[in-house]
Design a protein that fits this description.
The chain has 420 residues and is an alpha/beta fold. The chain has 3 domains: 172 residues, Molybdenum Cofactor Biosythetic Enzyme, Chain A (3-Layer(aba) Sandwich), CATH 3.40.980.10; 77 residues, 2-Layer Sandwich (Alpha-Beta Plaits), CATH 3.30.70.2860; 153 residues, CinA-like (Maf protein). It has 15 helices and 17 strands. The strands form 4 sheets. A 6-stranded mixed beta sheet has the order 2-1-3-8-7-6, sandwiched between helices. It has a 5-stranded mixed beta sheet with strand order 14-13-15-16-17, sandwiched between helices. α3 crosses α4 and α10 runs parallel beside α15. It is elongated and about 85 Å long. It starts with a strand and ends in a 9-residue tail after the last helix.
Length: 420
Amino acid sequence: MRSAIVSVGTEILFGQIVNTNTVYLSRQLNELGIDVIYHETVGDNPGRAKAVFERLLSQVDLIIATGGLGPTQDDLTKEMAAEAMGVKLVPDQASMEKLRETFRRMGREMTRNNEKQAWLPGEKDGRMFPNEGGTAPGCVFEKDGKRLICLPGPPREMTRMFESHVKPYLENLQEAVIHSVVLRLFGIGESSLEDALLDLISNQTDPTLATYAKEGEVTLRITSKRKRAQEARKAVEDMEKQVAERVGEWIYSDRDESLAEVVCQKLVERGITVSCAESCTGGMFASRLIDYPGISAVFERGLVTYSNRAKMEELGVREETLLRFGAVSEETALEMTAGLKKKTASRLCISVTGVAGPGGGTKEKPVGLVYICADLDGWVVCRQYRMRVVSRSWNRNYTVLHMLNLINHMLEGRLPAQIK
């Protein structure tokens, strides 16, 4: 099934809001095995909206439109969809009564323009999707094998309606079962991953493999579409084994989790207390840990020791070390971790020091040079990293990922593979 997603709203074209609906729907449709061919955005103009629907209906089997279902004069998505599909809207009494009851509960009088929200396709032309989070129902128009679904624009209402009503509706249309696994990798670039899997990707039919990179990480989705769920799962499992044989040392999750989630879950489950001392990341690592619910059971302390004075006073780094080797050095990182261990007695202590940029680098110590040192129950590892210079924020984020990656491997009793 080929599909298109249409976002209706002049505010999107003006850049006043971020269009998260399209991202969400694209992911959902792809997981259902429905190919997304087009993304379209059109303002609150009835003529242009109708023209977009008519053009897309000649090219796809399914259109999902979001926005323009409210009570005002510029909310005309449903009306233009009906015209494009060649069907009539009729008043739906159950939806009308629900609207009136909603206004009664709020102690407000329902203005006449709200009634247009309850005009929907008749039984022969489609169906209504209830809106448990708002007043405007959604609906689907059906004709000649084509389907045009109208959903509300507010993301909270749209996602709830899609999960509760639209997704089951679309699943019933599918003749096959979709099964996917999402692998998350760190330490290997998208091009290196593709090169390692080139023959699998080039010869893919089913399962399919899709890679994409984001903020220093790589995601690989393995998807199978079969008549039976068991067959789809088996096909994905077999492909996952082949992938793991080639790039398994860089895979940290097969459940589409972030690296921080994986590390925090292990720390909490194993009861390993953790403290950190950060220089160039300025508390970003601690913030990433604190985002995880339940981390308070093991997270003991986070220090931002940005200046040399802070490193000496808070962690006991020797002035001689700083003068001889500099703040960005293996020697300083080692003393930062040792001082943190002495101060907190946490089972896992990790420190970081580096040059985040854009200034401050030298020939000997360029922007992107970072030292990370971790002590896990007396096993001390200190590593040097040289970041690809993109921006200050990118360097800091990538450094945090390296910290998490080092911890994740140490928790499994091994060291990270070489970066590719």
